[in-house]
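User: Earlier you gave me the apo prediction for this protein. Now I'd like the version with pyridoxal-5'-phosphate bound, so I can compare the two side by side. Same sequence as before, with the ligand SMILES added.
Assistant: Got it. Here's the input I'm using:
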Amino acid sequence: MYRIGNEEINAVKEVIEKKDFFKVNGSCKAVWGFEEDMKAYFGTSHAAFTTSGTGALVSALVALGIGPGDEVLVPAYTYIATAMAVIAVGAIPVVTEVDATLSIDPDDIERKITPAVRCIIPVHMNGRPCNMGRIKEIADKHGIYILEDACQGVGSSYKGQYSGTIGDIGTFSFNFFKIISCGEGGAILTNNQKLYERSCIYHDASAIAFFGEQMKDFSEQGFCGTEYRGNEILAAIMRCQIKKLDSIVHDLRANRQALIDKLGGKFTFAPDNDANGDTGNVLAFRFDTIEEAKTFAEKTDSMYPINTDRHVYVNWTPLVEKRGAVHPLMDPFKMPANANLRHNYTADACPVSLEHLAKTVCCFISPDWTEEDIEKKAACMLAACNS
Ligand SMILES: Cc1ncc(COP(=O)(O)O)c(C=O)c1O
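And here is the structure of the complex with pyridoxal-5'-phosphate:
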């Protein structure tokens, strides 16, 4: 969470004073309002506010009709939630290499496509956009869906198009660690009416059941769903946060550039699929050897992606140990429909990714750094490089 203050306090106060916390009959209309705000900002015809990014991912997969018998390509470097969402709908995540950008490698996507693959999930990690041009070309050629996981990339873009709006359906997270945040929250974006209707029926099941007028114009038939519906308090915060997105991204980019300038060409940086669309929340350094990367990370107190626990596929413990559910008949790893699908999460599945991750170090940028903060950071990095 970067910037939160009086605007959010007043917005929450209003909801509490009116005691209208429920989306459907709330007089503040914060959820409806935030969904309109997202549509206007990101330019999609539909948007839905959810309780989390994970809830948004699961709802999007349900909407796409993904289930047992299906493989979904996920990158070797992403938060475990991306893969767990696939498991939640009964399908199998097939781990796919990331390239030097640390985002899903289009060449490995092509190598991994089989008739069982029905969806690709590009993940815009650390606000760094995936190569959506290539990914879209491949997906179109093979008739495969794209579900963008833009949970870490709200406000990032590829060739001028916002992350989350390029594939068939996209998802955001607004949890505490994200670029704009209400503590916990998420969103689904799409231009596809059918996918929107299905994701609403799924993520907002009881609102739909008890307040059927929300569905009156839907063509999709109802089915059993669950509750990932956002509430008025969180939406009220998000209506303020989305107004701050431009300035946060602007200041992140400016501070990252200022740091790069101060480093005076002494470092190599990881390539970017679209440097102009990168939100700038990290500066990714690339080293020739693992030893150099490790030492630099330790000396500068930076994030070392190979060590980021549940963000690297070999650390997705429940998947590595093939524990997909409590009930054996609900466990995708034990379902007969999935018996012939690929489920390998050991180091040999994506060795190239592990090497890229081990040679890259990410320094988090703050939009609120002062010149002095940037000066200090640069001095520490230059000292680490010279020692
Ligand atoms: C890439 C990615 N996908 C999905 C999620 C899940 O989002 P949430 O925590 O809102 O459920 C996260 C959250 O950290 C994430 O980083």
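For your comparison, keep in mind: Residues 52-54, 78-79, 81-82, 123, 149, 151-152, 173, 175, 186 surround pyridoxal-5'-phosphate (CB under 6 Å).
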